[in-house]
Structure formats: structure tokens, C-alpha cells
Amino acid sequence: MEFDADLLACAQLVERGDPDRFAASMAAPVAARRVLFAFYAFNIEVSRAPWVTEETMIAEMRLQWWRDALEEIRSRGVVRRHEVVTPLAEVLDSEGAALLDRLVAARRWDIYRDPFEDMAHFRGYIEDTSSNLMLAIARALGGSTEVPEMPLRDAGRALGIANWLRAVPALEQAGRIPLVDGTPEGVRALAQEGLSALSAARGARAQVHAALGPALLPLWQVGPVLKRAVSDPRRVAEGRLELAPVQRRFGLMARALTGRW
Fold first, then answer.
1. Is 195 helix (H, G, I), strand (E, B) or coil?
2. Is the model's pTM score more than 0.85?
3. Do 198 and 223 form a contact (C-beta atoms < 8 A)?
4. pLDDT tens track for 91-132
5. Which of 26, 182, 218, 250 has the fewest CB atoms within 10 Å, counting from its CB?
6. What whole-number distance in Å separates Cα of residue 16 and Cα of residue 259?
7. CB-based contact 202:219 (threshold 8 Å)
8. Cα separations (Å) of 231 from 97, 187, 235, 246?
9. Contact between residue 190 and residue 168 where contact means Cβ atoms under 8 Å apart
10. Which residues contact 199 (CB under 8 A, 6 or more apart)?
11. C-alpha 28 chain-centroid distance
């Protein structure tokens, strides 16, 4: 597969901004990378938008720019020229655009310093930002293949919780209140919730066509990370959830070779 300048820019953006998803993309079949790099570059750009300025109005405008771009894709009208939007428009369908629109809307929480209202609010944020991304990618990878929603939503929830727990120290340093219940018991319960979602997704693995597998490769670290948080919740605040480089490398290799995400 040949990369044009836009897709190469997306790949470079993912390599710099999200090394884990870049590694997962490189472990995927070559044909799938055209989809993965476009979606992951989009995700990086949107996730950064609330953080590049302290002016809330400017941050809101940046997120609205992406919502407008997604509406152009969804309506199949003229789509703006942009190194991420252009390749994304080639692989994103209307329903996928609606899923990503909810992702962008959820990112408004990142602009402000208000805590989550309750666990329902937090779960909705994870659902919109992580599960919707995974489901939209699966739709793009699958083509006419049936995309079973619940296993992918469960997988996205597990990944979202694991990534959120990994980000807690940075979020706290930035003045955010990332957890509804930051006590050891609350952290353990949240990590266990992620493990339950991961178990549910894997229990329904037979429903997920192999063509959708590349969307699920980022799960390779989720189980070990969440188990670390369950066994010692202090690891979250101390930023000690990361796996050793060798464990990460061989874990991804095993998932890619076997296809058993």
C-alpha cells in the first residue's frame, strides 16, 4: 500500500502523539493502516484541541471546527482540504461520522476544570471518547462485514478506563479532577469495571469478524494495566501502571500473530 502525503502526515502524527496506537497500527495488516492512521490522527488532533490554549472560547472553536468537518463528511458534501480530514473522509461513513461527532462533543469536558458530575457522567465520557472511536474504526475496516456493537463497545470501555487511569497523574498536574472516587477502593472498583468489560468483549470474540481485528489491537496492554491498578491502586496516582518495554513488545507481537485480542 502506497501512502500519499496526507496519510504519511497522519502516520507521523500518530507516531509522535500516540506511540501505543502507532505500534498497534504497525502490527496490523498493511491494508488496515490506511484506516487506522487516519482515525488515530483525528483522535490526536481532537484530544489536543482543548489543551493548546487557556482561552475557553478558542478551545470551543477548535472543537467546533472538527464537528463542522465531520458534518461535511456525514452529509457527503464538499469536504474541506486538510491533511487529516481528507484521508479520514475517504474511509469514514455517515454513521461513523455521527459516532465521532459525539466523541468531539464529549471532549468539551477537557476544556474546563469542573469534575465529572457522577459515575454516569464519567462512563458516558469514556463511552463517547473510546468506545465510539473503536466502533467507527471497525465500521471502516469491515466494509460490508457486520459489526457487532456490544463487544466493540465493551472493548472500547476497557481500553478507555485503562488509558484514563494511566493519564491520572498528568490530568491532576494540569489541574483537573479526573476521578469521581479517587480513594483506593474507588480506583480498584473502576479498574475492576474495566476488567469486566474486557472479559465481556473477549467472551464475545466469536462474533467479531477477523477483518475488524486491527481495531482491537490497542487492547494488548489493557489487562495487565488494569490488574496492576486492582492489586495496588496507589500505582495510579504514582504513575506506575506502565509495563516494561519487553513485556509491551512481546505482548503486542503475540496478539498480532495470533489475532486473539
1. helix
2. yes
3. yes
4. 999 999 999 999 999 999 999 999 999 999 999 999 999 999
5. 250
6. 26
7. no
8. 38, 10, 9, 21
9. no
10. none
11. 16
